[in-house]
Amino acid sequence: MSILLLLMFWYGVAPSIGIWFFLPMLLVAIATVLGLSLWLSALYVPFRDVGHLLPFLVTIWILNVTFLPKMLEASGALTSTGNVVESPLAADLPNVVYSIRIAFFIACIVHALGDGILAGVLDTGKIPNGLRHSCIMLVIALLAFLII
Description:
- The chain has 148 residues and is mostly helical.
- The chain is built from six helices and no strands.
- It has helices at 2-11, 19-44, 50-81, 88-91, 93-124, 127-147.
- Helix 3 runs antiparallel to helix 5 and helix 3 (50-81) runs parallel beside helix 6.
């Protein structure tokens, strides 16, 4: 930020009113990232298996947010141009995208259950401890899908 202000002064560019909105939003973004990372690090200490679930959830989130809407957008572009598409998937693409989302949800549930039980058994050698880990990971997966 200081480099930006220095360069603006050097080239004689006056900051607009938008700079007053940028600084508070930057502080909110920093506080959000810091809060989320502190919360996840506190969760990571007693439950090390959370570190295996979170990258999986982030991958599913990225696919849900970027890839699947683009599939629907491409389908809409094909139907608006009047081109006849011979693929059975393209004819019923909204249902296919919905099925993909359900498959993502099931994959997250299976991943949370399996990793939780495995981590608990490896940690103490007892299945009930693994079920405790699984329950926590299932709650995280369900909350992640509510956000998506």
